Amino acid sequence: MKKKWLAGLGITTMLVGSVLGGCSNSDNGDSSSGEGDGEKVQVTLAGWGGNPSEQKLLEQTLDDFEASHPNIDVKLEVISEQYMDVIKTRLIGGEGPDVFYLDAFEAPALVETGVVEPLDEYVTEEFDVEDFEKPMLEAFQVDGKTYGFPKDYSTLALFYNKKMLEEAGVEVPKTWEEFQAASEKLTNGDVYGFGVAPELARLYYIAQSLGGKVVKDDKANFASPEVVDALQPIIDQHNEAKTSAQPSEVGATWGAEMFGQEKAAMVIEGNWAIPFMEDTFPGVDYGTAEVPTINGEKGTMAYTVAYVMNAASEKKEASWKLLSYLTGKEGMETWTSKGFALPTRKSVAEKLGYDQDELRSALVAGAPYATVWSEGTNLPIIVNNFNNQFVSAFLGDRPLDEALKEAQEQANSEIESN
Hints:
The chain is an alpha/beta fold and 418 residues long. The chain is built from 17 helices and 15 strands. The chain has two domains: 3-153 and 303-372, D-Maltodextrin-Binding Protein, domain 2 (3-Layer(aba) Sandwich); 156-301 and 375-417, 3-Layer(aba) Sandwich (D-Maltodextrin-Binding Protein, domain 2). The protein has helices at residues 3-6, 52-68, 83-92, 107-112, 134-138, 162-168, 176-186, 200-207, 225-241, 255-260, 273-280, 316-326, 329-335, 346-352, 361-365, 379-394, 400-417; strands spanning 19-20, 41-47, 72-79, 99-103, 141-142, 145-146, 149-161, 192-195, 215-216, 219-220, 244-245, 264-270, 286-289, 301-309, 371-372. The strands form three sheets. Strands 1, 2, 3, 4, 7, 8, 11, 12, 13, 14 and 15 form an eleven-stranded mixed β-sheet that branches. α13 (329-335) packs across α14 (346-352) and α16 runs antiparallel to α17 (400-417).
């Protein structure tokens, strides 16, 4: 994926190493109140970098916060590489930032260590927790406690080439059966009906569509018959029907590039693909729709990132003021105003018109029923082993059930040894 479009969401499992600027909780004195004593308090905020437009929006949001909170100064730190490794090292060393980004994928394991502050006691009625899209909020809740508030998200939607569908006499598919039939009609020469990403981060909701569980009791369970049966159509479409291809098979690096080059009539992508298409392939006329249903049930993935507080911060009151502004209605409206990321607050999405937007409304519609890319503390181990073996079945080298059985055994062996 093009990192510049994903960085604002943190949808890739994390970026990669150096810290721009230092951070210490002892900066600027030992005030924990944050405001009220006349002294200016410095709060450190750490995250990964986005594209220049996203960076400008964040800086504008922080400027607005400082203008309304004159006793709080925000020190923004951009960790451009190996984000989680750097954050973990600094938290362990007692030099972590006061507030920082946390991807839902990484949240369960980090929360378990005790370094993330529970936020429930800081929340007031005015903050309006009910306004958040429920799946995004629940991704940062553990045992009834809330450890972060999601700053933005994306679901997946069906992106389709209007001209190709019209020429093939194909309606926008609403069910997976219609989608497979449309893919067959749209495949022509070096153009495939479906540009597919054969990885668990994209296929998780499909894997569980027949009632199976990819993760059970924090261990890999993706070799179960229900999961194998749910994923088999992805394999069959590629190897038997030959109406799908992954981007690398047509010389592209990711789905939106394959779609923009018009080597795929349909892809299932996220909000990040919209600004990419606008900048890189402005001549392609396309539309979006909700992901086709499977067995009559709607489904999609969601990827979200929260602002969280360092449990060891000495400036918790000021940190909460910053965190609650960034995830509050005013700050979130500014941050998501250009559409690079979608607001996790329903009221903000409505105010900005994303729920009615020609391209983004399908993504917003998927939020209430989305499966968030987050599942227990061992998901990083589980996904690595899944991906390593699933692709061999996808390429036709071995049966899917055999590949996933080996991957599951290896994943659970690593989990047990840890």
